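Summary for the steering committee. The consortium agreed at its last meeting that each partner would contribute one worked example illustrating the joint modelling workflow. Our contribution is presented below. We chose a case with several input lines so that the handling of multiple components could be demonstrated. No manual editing was applied between input and output; the record is shown as generated.
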Amino acid sequence: MKFFIDTANLAQIKEAQDLGVLDGVTTNPSLMAKEGITGDDNVLAHYKAICDLVDDNVSAEVISTDFEGMIAEGERLAAIDKKIVVKVPMIADGVKALKYFSKKGIRTNCTLVFSAGQALLAAKAGASYVSPFVGRLDDISTDGLQLIEDIRLIYDNYGYETEILAASVRHPMHIIECAKIGADVMTGPLSAIKALLKHPLTDIGLQQFLADHAKAAAATK
Ligand code: E4P
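What follows is the complete predicted structure of the assembly.
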């Protein structure tokens, strides 16, 4: 399973990349706003800076909600770098835009997906990635991981090539469950990725190993 980080924060992207486990990045308009990135030139420059930090792809979301606007914006975003994947919302014009981009060979990520039906539409329109939001479904007492399982089954039934990008991942158990189900990619915060490192027995074991080594070294002096 590929690991994407869900942020527009360059320091966090670099930290995950330096850990050696990061594949790509997803962003959204809220995450860009959080970093104070506004204005066409700043947005394009920021996406370029993100692309320069990672090996795999970077999802850049359109702001437009009409077909023509999404096409113009998506083409501008795709021209920034070959790592850019154009992120398009799951609305009717978005589905048309997915089809358009797919025919033009521009990779897409269909975002704001909350049902298996929406995921099926995204695949039929030729989306490269579909982003079901696990955490936001959990937030409203609906099983987000069940949706990942349903989409996996449907895509495997028909051999759809659209990759399942489990989004709105909030904690390490989401990541582990997504891996068990067979999501192709997960995107989450740095905190969730780093939380995978933690186990108290690792810390206790390491302390013991180092203490035993120090004792033996002192005894042989
Ligand atoms: C998806 O690509 C979104 O950027 C993201 O995963 C949303 O996560 P959130 O629900 O934690 O905001």
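The radius of gyration is 20 Å. Residues 6, 26, 28, 111, 131, 133, 135-136, 167-168, 187 surround erythose-4-phosphate (CB under 6 Å).
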